[in-house]
Amino acid sequence: MGVELSLDPPVCPIQAHGGTSKHKMINHTDRHLAYKIKSSNNSHYSVNLIFGILKVCEVKELVITRKAGKPQADKLIIQYCQINDENADPKPLFANGVPPGELSGETTIKLSAAE
């Protein structure tokens, strides 16, 4: 598979004292994708989108927010899978991780907080 889902920019440089970073989440496929965003550090990072649907070739704005704290190597994982119904509720799809399917996977974004 190629790149089905990506972020632009692909890295997230945020200061350790806190701040926000805006990104474009892009569906590069000809199919609807359901997604779930997970963080390795929920105490310092949050996002404006946790679950959702990216329609065919759609772009959504993802805002990553960091609270002040000690910098460490963190990451966001965007899990995704193909769906047929663009009005489906994506939350139950990810109850047990990424659902198996022809078009499913994960995209990882490194979070690099600097002092």
TrEMBL record:
All copies of the MSP domain together span 1-115
Query: In which residue ranges is the amino acid composition biased (Polar residues)?
Result: 105-115
SUPFAM superfamilies linked to this entry: PapD-like
By its UniProt entry, which PANTHER family does this protein fall under? MAJOR SPERM PROTEIN, MSP DOMAIN-CONTAINING PROTEIN
Q: Where is this region: Disordered?
A: 96-115
Q: Which organism is it from?
A: Caenorhabditis japonica
Which Pfam family would be a valid example here?
Answer: Motile_Sperm
**Coiled-coil intervals in this record?**
none
Q: What is this protein called?
A: MSP domain-containing protein
